[in-house]
Amino acid sequence: MVNIYNIKNFADKLRDLRLENNLTQEEVAALALISKKTLSRIENGTVIPKIETLEVLSDVYKTDLIKLYLESRYINFELFSSILANIDILIEKRFFDELISEKNNLERLGSHVETGFLKIRIDQYILFIDSILAMEEDDTSRAKLLTTKALKLTKENFDVNNYRDFSFSTLELRLLMILGKVYYLEDNYKSYREILYFCFSSVDPRDKFFISTCINLGNVYKRDANYEKALEVFNLGLEAALKNNYLAELDLLFFAKGSCEYKLGISTYKDSFSKALDFCTITGKDQTKILIAEKIKKYFS
Q1: What is the tens place of the pLDDT at every residue in 182-229?
Q2: Which CATH superfamily, name and number, covers 7-73?
Q3: Contact 130, 146 (CB under 8 A)
């Protein structure tokens, strides 16, 4: 069921993507800092590209080429994708028992894959889930160990001091964010802030993870009483969420926006609070609505 790889299919898609962007091979090679010969061989289907090459080309084309690579390579990619999509939903809703079930599904899928990038990706997602569960259990030492192990699967020389030397996929940035939260819980706010800003600066605003970075970074600025900067970041998150129809975090973003507006004396804070409650209703987050409503009351007491 696995290890079916269609390099020609991937090569054709990559070439079509370059043409859609109205770029020549010379232009792409210059932007990605690779040789034209390498790009030509990839587009001709004569070589399997390195993951590092796909990452830099992803930046040029503004497209996740690793995902495109997997779609072309493995006939079970649809199953893999559906598991990953459900994992994100379960994390958002904090359904950790069901998250463990999806982890088991990944392990079963991985048992049929001996080598290759899909195997690495599956193992990395399993470690990602385990690190989230460790954080939920307040086991920060284990979470730190798991996230570092996961990142070393694709960045062999990674350690907590050299992360700025690498470019990261979205999953790797999410792992790095967990590492940052470990620092926060250890009262190492400087390292947390630095990792958080790195993630915010590195992720594509079209990516759903960008919303999480905005919420976390905005809250850091709020903690520092820098409400103007916090409001700026929350507005960036709102703009991205509304543009890309990411509804799940709009309640938190509008509440955060309203709290900053209140502190800055901006009259629209009531409207922002109202929208926060409305989006709780729209997304069925009844418990969150109760919690936000209680927080809003403090602004009028």
Answers
A1: 999 999 999 999 999 999 999 999 899 999 999 999 999 999 999 999
A2: lambda repressor-like DNA-binding domains (1.10.260.40)
A3: yes
> What DSSP string describes the chain?
------HHHHHHHHHHHHHHTT--HHHHHHHHT--HHHHHHHHTTSSPPPHHHHHHHHHHHTS-HHHHHHHHH-TTHHHHHHHHHHHHHHHHHT-HHHHHHHHHHHHHHHTT--SSHHHHHHHHHHHHHHHHHHHHTT-HHHHHHHHHHHHHHH-TT--TT-GGGS---HHHHHHHHHHHHHHHHTT-HHHHHHHHHHHHHHS-TTSTHHHHHHHHHHHHHHHTT-HHHHHHHHHHHHHHHHHTT--TTHHHHHHHHHHHHHHTT-TTHHHHHHHHHHHHHHTT-HHHHHHHHHHHHHT--
* Distance of alpha carbon 188 from alpha carbon 181, whole angstroms: 9
For 205-301, CATH number?
1.25.40.10
Name the residue ranges covered by the structural domains of the chain.
7-73, 205-301
Q: Which residues contact 64 (CB under 8 A, 6 or more apart)?
A: 58, 169, 170
Instruction: With a cut of 70, list the residues of the chain below it in pLDDT.
Output: 1-6, 73-78, 113-116, 301
**Alpha carbon distance 168, 184 (integer Å):** 21
At 137-153, the pLDDT tens digits run 999 999 999 999 999 99
